[in-house]
Design a protein that fits this description.
The complex is a heterodimer. Chain A is 43% helix and 14% strand. In chain A, the strands form 3 sheets. Chain A has a 5-stranded mixed β-sheet with strand order 3-4-2-1-5. In chain A, strands 7-6-11-9 form a 4-stranded mixed β-sheet, covered by helices on one side. Chain A is globular. In chain B, strand 1 and strand 2 form a beta hairpin. The longest helix of chain B has 15 residues. The chains are: A alpha/beta, B alpha+beta.
Chain lengths: 418, 494
């Protein structure tokens, strides 16, 4: 099995520039700066790299929508989305902690292709240690002439600014992140225009996830074809899963894109001893769970979608039979209600209402009408809102009620745990 | 010129400019799509999700306030699915709404009530407790904020951000705990603050002046023009004559802006709250004050005044008027006093602040009407000099409070030097006691007439109320006197 991002994770001082360079770091940047920008873009397209922040949008296609400089002159930006806030996801944290230079190198390559002279890393406020690691790595890179003016003597200028979030989950959504960066309330924008056309300060802006950008040095080094072959036909490379919950060995694991769910679980030591699998949340808590019958599906964006849920950002949470679907759904809906930005009505009111109903059901005060009302409210939110957070409010409640109807019926009829 | 394209709305082919928002194009075609956040002058944030429609070929319903018209678009705003989506958006708006309609001033003109009756009519499924927030937040001198009733459509915050650029209001916190609040250190006290009450689709922002005075369904509404300055904002006068014991016995309950090219959707607070004189300090009797005080009929007064005019001849006669007169009044005044010296410029008593939005420097509506008739005004300083030196045989004062021009003492002394004096106007003011005759005139709300605004635009204002007592429009009063002068039948003149 080929490891791409975590290949050198056993190196104790990988986060230091010296170690990173000793292991071949920044060679890809040097190579990239000697290539025409269009050639790198072609490689990225060939690689079938998709956005690993959750949406799975083809990266090369996203980059191609940035208007060329002769049509839209002026600055353009690349922004790293390191606002990893989805419960269950912690792979970006590990990537930043262990290998910050891999991200910086990837960001510089992206900035070169896009033409960004000022790039940004937006990191969630709670990632204090990771912020310090990144800050130190950036200092090292700057001193070594890897960030700033005339990088590696190749005439390319690019500075990188580190910005910290203030703790809103919604800032992890690209357009809300851009609003936050502009000093505004984190209210998602409604495209069109998309950020690649009018993003940060209304300038063309590419927002990419940490993991996505960290792949770039490897694509430049080994070619798009090599990368594409690591994965499945429409999604190349590898993916990181942050596996947690009722497994023996929780942690961040790298797999080829399209790994079988069964194999991913096995790598994490399987369901904890003496217990049975109840479900697997594939991509972070916003996604409805996969069931035991889904153990043989391939974990890639399109296959998981075909199974009725989303791969998301690979924050896999494993549930065994001790988990009660009402409690799980309540926990997630409470989170979503707390994090709803409040811009659009269906999400603001619907997430609150869903949480309140579940709270009542949880305390044994459910009424039979709740069994119809909960999914009805969910249906009225999903697809009627501004952004994906609202969509998930309905998706989660409907997802759990369809998959575990007995847990809900039992709790409502006698107040007992399912 | 935008390209005209055809699209389908509820199965009917409609023509519209390419790129026009579907919600607007539908309105042009007579189809009202429910909405709260969208306002033609404040943009389309698309946050209320009420204007949701079905679009053929789209995977999910779309909000029509962000959907541009293009050739061949097939939109349904009244299909069962679209109506269900709109009703469910309304249901979610009401999850945390307090439903305190019985004590809410917005009742009767509330977007939540209206749409509930139109597209809602479902049985409530809410069994949960509602969020509690501030019920009586004093936003400013004119506006009261109820955060519980607020549906967070952001119209008011966009108004203070984009129109007045004063930023007194903002949306604070997030999710269901979110609320409209005053920006720290600020008070909603700009010259246009009352407009946030008009644009609030619910009862969250209410007018402190109008709160608890009268139910809106008792009000009559008449198209009018604001007489507060030379802009001539189009307004609607809301009067309460059905329940005379409400609204503190006052007939005029409030003024509201009426959408027009002149003023857009707005009016200033000075104009909005300047309606008290319509009910306070009014004149209703025709009086001779000196030499001996007596109430006169219009006929008797006209005869007496005609005699005084003949007596002194129109030579030496001065008329002090103001831009409060209508075009009709100016014409009658010109006709009655062809040789008199006229004084009507806006002195410091009738000028004030102007701004880039609506407010004009001259705080009277119709100086332009006098100009259009070729009337010329002398200066009030010259009038004072003429009075001082005894050159004025008669002084006719029309809708002008000279105590505000000259100060009370000086005005009294100067008016006393005229051979005779007439005060004619709707309100007594400081000058009402100083003249030898006092004639009650109707206020603008009690007559139909025309003002010519600073741009030269002639605008009609309509009669909203009956006159007080014997009051008559200025031009009728001038007509009566003219008839008495020429010996024509008084009835015909009236």
């Amino acid at each position: 099995m080929t490891l791409v991002l975590t290949k050198h994770f056993a190196e104790p001082k990988l986060h230091e520039l010296e170690t990173y360079r000793r292991l071949g770091g920044y060679k890809a940047l040097e190579k990239a700066l000697g290539l025409p920008r269009a050639a790198i873009l072609e490689e990225v397209k060939t690689s079938n790299l998709r956005g690993l922040g959750g949406a799975g949008f083809p990266t090369g296609m996203k980059w191609s929508t940035v208007p060329p400089e002769d049509k839209v002159p002026g600055p353009r930006y690349v922004v790293v989305n390191c606002d990893e806030s989805e419960p269950g996801c912690y792979k970006d944290r590990v990537l930043v902690e262990r290998d910050p230079h891999q991200l910086i190198e990837g960001l510089l390559i992206a900035s070169y292709v896009i033409g960004s002279k000022d790039s940004f890393i937006f990191i969630r406020g709670e990632y204090q240690t990771q912020y310090e690691i990144l800050e130190k790595a950036l200092d090292e890179a700057r001193k070594a002439g890897l960030v700033g003016k005339d990088i590696l003597g190749k005439g390319f200028d690019c500075d990188i600014l580190l910005m910290r979030g203030a703790g809103a989950y919604i800032s992890g959504l690209d357009t809300a992140l851009l609003e936050t960066m502009e000093g505004k309330k984190a209210w998602p924008r409604q495209p069109p225009p998309f950020p690649t056309v009018a993003g940060l300060m209304a300038k063309p802006t590419v927002v990419n996830n940490v993991e996505t950008l960290s792949m770039l040095p490897h694509i430049v080094e080994n070619g798009g074809e090599w990368f594409a072959k690591l994965g499945v036909p429409k999604s190349g490379g590898t993916l990181l899963l942050s596996i947690s919950g009722h497994v023996e060995k929780p942690g961040v694991y790298e797999f080829p894109m399209g790994v079988k769910l069964r194999d991913a679980l096995a790598a994490a030591g399987g369901v904890r001893a003496g217990h049975k699998l109840k479900g697997v949340i594939p991509g972070g808590t916003s996604m409805p769970p996969l069931m035991e019958k889904d153990l043989d599906i391939a974990l890639d964006f399109d296959s998981v979608r075909a199974a009725g849920t989303f791969l998301g950002a690979g924050g896999m949470i494993v549930l065994d039979e001790t988990a009660d679907a009402v409690e799980v759904a309540h926990n997630i809906e409470r989170f979503l209600a707390h994090e709803s930005c409040g811009q659009c009505t269906p999400c603001r009111e619907g997430s609150f209402w869903t949480e309140e109903i579940l709270e009542r059901v949880l305390h044994g005060d459910g009424v039979p009408a709740d069994l119809e009302n909960l999914p009805r409210v969910g249906e009225n939110i999903t697809g009627r809102v501004i952004c994906a957070l609202g969509d998930t409010v309905g998706m989660v409640i409907r997802g759990y009620m369809t998959r575990y109807p007995d847990d809900f019926k039992k709790r409502i009829s006698n107040g007992q745990k399912g | 010129m935008a390209k005209r394209v055809k699209f389908k709305l509820n199965g009917t082919e409609v023509e519209a400019d390419e790129g026009r928002l579907v919600i607007d194009a539908a309105k042009d075609a007579g189809v009202e799509i429910p909405h709260y956040c969208y306002h033609p002058a404040l943009g389309n944030p698309g946050n209320c999700r009420m204007c949701i429609v079905e679009v053929a070929g789209a995977p999910k319903p779309q909000v029509s306030c962000r959907l541009p018209v293009k050739e061949g678009l097939d939109v349904k705003s009244d299909s069962p699915a679209a109506k269900r989506a709109q009703a469910s958006a309304l249901e979610l708006h009401l999850v945390n709404h307090p439903l305190d309609c019985p004590v809410c001033d917005q009742s009767g003109e509330c977007g939540l009530q209206d749409y509930y009756m139109k597209i809602g009519r479902y049985q409530s499924q809410v069994r949960e407790d509602k969020q509690h927030k501030g019920k009586r937040v004093e936003a400013g001198p004119h506006v009261m904020l109820d955060q519980e009733r607020c549906i967070l459509c952001t119209r008011c915050t966009r108004f203070v951000d984009d129109v007045t650029k004063t930023h007194e209001l903002g949306i604070f916190r997030r999710g269901h705990t979110e609320a409209v609040e005053l920006t720290p250190g600020k008070v909603l006290d700009n010259d246009y603050s009352g407009n946030v009450v008009d644009i609030c689709p619910v009862g969250a922002l209410t007018d402190r002046d109008f709160r608890y005075q009268v139910r809106v369904w008792y009000l009559d509404k008449t198209d009018s023009v604001c007489p507060g300055c030379s802009r001539g904002c189009n307004i609607s006068i809301h009067t309460n004559t059905k329940r005379t014991w409400h609204n503190q016995g006052h007939r005029v309950a409030r003024l509201k802006p009426r959408h027009s090219e002149v003023n857009g959707y707005w009016m200033c607070d000075e104009g909005r709250y300047g309606y008290r004189p319509l009910d306070e300090g009014r004149l209703g009797k025709v009086l001779r004050l000196t030499p001996e005080r007596a109430e006169l009929s219009w006929e008797a007064a006209a005869v007496e005044l005609a005699a005084r005019l003949k007596d002194g001849g129109s030579k030496g006669l001065a008329v002090a008027a103001s831009g409060m007169l209508s075009n009709e009044d100016w014409a009658a005044l010109k006709d009655l006093f062809p040789a008199a010296k006229l004084y009507f410029t806006a002195e410091p008593d009738q000028v004030g602040a102007e701004d880039a939005l609506l407010k004009r420097r001259e705080k009277v509506p119709n100086l332009k009407g006098a100009e259009a008739l070729g009337l010329k005004s002398g200066s009030f300083d010259d009038l004072a000099k003429d009075l001082e030196s005894g050159k004025v045989s008669g002084l006719w004062i029309v809708e002008r409070d000279l105590t505000k021009v000259w100060g009370a003492e000086r005005a009294k002394a100067l008016i006393g030097k005229a051979g005779f004096s007439v005060f004619q106007g709707p309100n007594k003011g400081g000058t009402g006691e100083l003249a030898s005759y006092r004639l009650p005139a109707t206020a603008y709300a009690e007559e139909t007439g025309r003002f010519t605004n600073f741009e030269g635009r002639v605008q009609e204002y309509r009669k909203a109320l009956d006159p007080i007592g014997s009051a008559r429009p200025d031009h009728e009063i001038f007509g009566l006197v003219k008839a008495a002068l020429t010996g024509a039948a008084l009835e015909a003149a009236a």
